[in-house]
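Page 47, continued from p. 46.
Same chain as before, 231 aa.
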Amino acid sequence: MIKYAINYIRYKLGLSPDMEFVADQLRKPSGFFGPKITRHMAGANLKLFEFTLKCMRPEPGDRILEIGFGNGDHFERIMNQAPGIKLIALDHSKYLIDQVKDKHRSLINQHGIEIITGTSERIPLPDNSVDKVFCNNVIYFWENPDEHLQEIKRVLKPGGTFCSGYRTATSMKRLPFTGTGFILYEKESWEKILRQAHFSVDSTESFLEYRKIGKENSIELESVCTIARTD
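Result:
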């Protein structure tokens, strides 16, 4: 609470927030800063989401689990990929879950989108129950990635697909808020972790995008999707 209050005062005074606090909010948005963080994430991650969705290649009737769904503005794009898709959206932020259920109530009811509370190391789904799992900019916050990956393997059907969207460590280090609370990966190091968890890595695709920092400066970011499968 003290950290939150300090950063609220800094915001009101027109000062930049503490970067550790920004990292905490990116991990789990809440309170006054929740809407600002989720709007920022939705815009900043749109191209990466579209790229991950393209790499995932949804098929008719797929049961798809998204880990960490942000503000849910992209749900309709997923549902429009193929007929009969069943989307299950998982997050651990009560703030996000409440906001998304309210904002997208009509879409959720129309398509039977399932919004569930939980974390990716304790996914509240049965074994072998989904065809595809994806996440974007989530793996940085997994202190023990194998624990999360084993849960993802558990809920995936045999031969199921896991698509992880992220930005390379080299790119992320150019951003001002990643010095604390983030575990960063180059493409090869993340592939190695997936293989150690007994995933088969199909491919790693990437593209370059440019992000404005301040009014005049921009940085180059390498955005990546690694496509892996269960045996």
